[in-house]
From TrEMBL, chain A:
Sample GO molecular function, one term: peptide transmembrane transporter activity
One Pfam family linked to the record: SBP_bac_5
Taxonomic superkingdom: Bacteria
Any one of the GO CC terms: ATP-binding cassette (ABC) transporter complex
Key words of the record: Signal
InterPro entries documented for this protein: Peptide/Ni-bd, SBP_5, SBP_5_dom
Main location: periplasm
Biological-process GO terms, alphabetical: peptide transport
Protein name: ABC transporter substrate-binding protein
Keyword Signal: yes
UniProtKB/TrEMBL annotation, chain B:
Highest rank taxon of the organism: Bacteria
Protein's UniProt keywords contain Membrane: yes
Name of the featured protein: ABC transporter permease
Gene Ontology molecular function, alphabetical: dipeptide transmembrane transporter activity
Amino acid sequence: MSDRLKLRALTGLALGALLAAPSMAHATTPADTLVMAKNIDDMISLDPAECYELTGVEVDANIYDRLVRNDPKDATKLVGGVADSWTVSPDGKTMTFKLHPGLTFTSGKPVTAEDAAFSLSRVIKLDKSPAFLISQLGWTKDNVDQMVKAVDPATLQITIGPNYASTLVLALMSSIVGSVVEKAVAMEHDQGGDLGNAWLKTHSAGSGPFALKSWKANESVVLDANPTYREGAPPLKRVIIRHVPEPAAQRLLIEKGDADVARDLSPDLVAAVAGNKDIKIVASPQAALHYVGINVKAAPLNNPKVRLALHYLVDYQGMADSFLKGQFQVHQTFWPSGFWAALDKNPFTFDPAKAKQLLTEAGYPNGFDITLDASNSSPYMTMAQAIQSSMAQGGVKVTILPGEQKSVITKFRARQHQLLLIYWGPDYMDPHSNADSFARNTDNSDTPATKPLAWRNSWLIPEISKRTEAAVEERDGVKREAMYKDLQQTLLDDSPFIIMFQEVKQTAERSNLQNFIVGPTQDVVYYGYAKK
Amino acid sequence: MTFVIGRFIPVDPVLAIVGDHATQSTYEKTRLSIGLDRPIPEQYLIYLNKLIHGDLGTSVITSQPVLTDLLHFFPATLELATVATVLGVIVGVPAGVLAGATRGRWPDQIVRVVGLFGYSMPVFWMGLVGLFVFYGKLNWTAGPGRIDVGYEDVVDPKTGILLLDSALAGEWDAFRSAAAHLVLPSIILGYLSLAYIARMTRSFTIGQLSQEYATTALLKGRSFWGMVWRHAFPNILVPLVTVIGLSYATLLEGAVLTETVFAWPGLGLYITQSLFNADMNAVLGGTIVVGAVFIGINLLSDVLYRIIDPRLRLQ
């Protein structure tokens, strides 16, 4: 072979190897399986007494049936779950639940009131993340077994300490702590008195529409249908949630039909797939609120006029109509639209002239310098930049301090911020969930018993806190609703929160998929009705 | 060092466990249970003591012992890095020799441009474009993930290396699916490795060709390519092994961006995610693996030197 030929052969080898990607076909999703592309890196446990991350709670909502459930057709309504009906004693402190007859766990064993009582007391005894939901009912390690008990195999009775409205108690029983765990299975895997916690992190013992087959961190969650579910076997036999952290990769998967649902598409990706006839975009308003916290610890933010001025220096509609399009709607009160007792009022608009006037009255005619902490992820950075530019028009010079989400929260909880951009999702669907955090702080010391959002912004509000406490005890529904609306108005008048948006989830689904339900919170994402 | 950094990063590790809404009492209880109330030197000694006994602790974010996690995530990275490095070597070494031997002429220019591209393009972007073109448009490769959903749980994970596991089990459909998923990320990473290997090989080749023995061989009647392969190439092998070893070790650390784009559950993603959650047991475990990989590859290179270079064998 001549040198020239060898040279060509060698060049051919080098370039050929680069281009020699084999052509390989691949299957679309199986007809009896729901394949979902989602970022699931927040999952740390599937034990319902421990789990409190968005993805984990969502998965648990599908593998554990709860005492009370949110109606899939209207998530703001509560309907029976493991419990069919309930009665409240005249003093409002004792509730008696009658269990749905004939229910079985995925193991085949019957669901009894004993299991339900065990599940509630387990949450208190383990004292993990979601324990605060029901410890507020006055339940402690020592008294929970007296206050929560099975009267007979079909009857559960609970007694609460404080005078809480029974609607609130029901809302709590529809949250993750109301998940009914099979006692025998949990105790069979008890290690050193952990009530099966270590085992249940990655296994399931429930009676929901699905049972957990496997959870591989950073990879996938696989659920198998439960043929004996209370509402009948789900139409699809299996659900596979694939961890796909990159939204652009989720878009490709749904376009190619390798996923039936893509959960985390950003607005630009939604726009990119919107014209595809094989894909539909389903919008679901969420309960989560996005806001700027104002730490009122020091000047100038301790001045109410300055706080009010800042409310007029955010271009709410401008953001919602541009880079947040479709995924955020303007909302300015502390309880989200579409829920009972929400005050639908958005009085603030971007008005630099008014803001300047307020700042002048407050003694800052030339504005001031301030820092804004925000998560370095999307869309927070863009939001922070938009706020920076709109505040500049009122003379307020914002320096953005980007950080990883968890470090931003750490700083918030240490009250080391000035302004801080973050979100808040209610823990259960009762306005008390948000009022208790936005509108309660009676201990402004550095070591309070809890760290509600008002505390995190150093906002000491003994009077408002009293109203919050009175509202939760009001048993007349009409009066109670009015009390929450008044509280929302009070916080609109002056508060350290620039509440800006209510989130709207946009889910991309293949056109042949039906009844995949994405409700306003992670508790109401139901896989069990989906069919294709 | 990693331990100290981990204790001083501005993220509260308790938050990663109990979340933002838990009561102060739950928070304190968890803080005590993971030993964060103790002085840092004491925490370190406790960690070392456990380490000696083979206990790397439990990861907060996966709820699994760190060792179990590493045994799960490392094979995914090993599979990807090995295939990528093989591709990088098969293409990069001949390309580098070719470029070095034809210095300044068009084959050299092509290799240099291809190499420069590989060096300067962000791998994240290349991955996305690669997916868009080869998976989205041309249908040549499979999409993100390690295997098609239909084969999920079909193969028993003996080694964690899917190609090997499926081949051992005789599940050839699963093997094909795993291979189809591996093609694109390994070509992208292989391209990075190729760019580096080709560039270094080129400069080694140029160095050898300027030596007097090369001229002598040509004068004695050796053909040009005969001289390149028989005389110059064996001399560049020793530094080349170092280069390939380094490139391999870098890929074995886990390529977090490639893993993110391709939804590849590897070591890079695991360590990064653990770091963001201040999950220090996992970060330390991952760091130990990376350290071990570097030491292992260095040892392997040393062994290879002796095989390749007769002078070292004599010593």
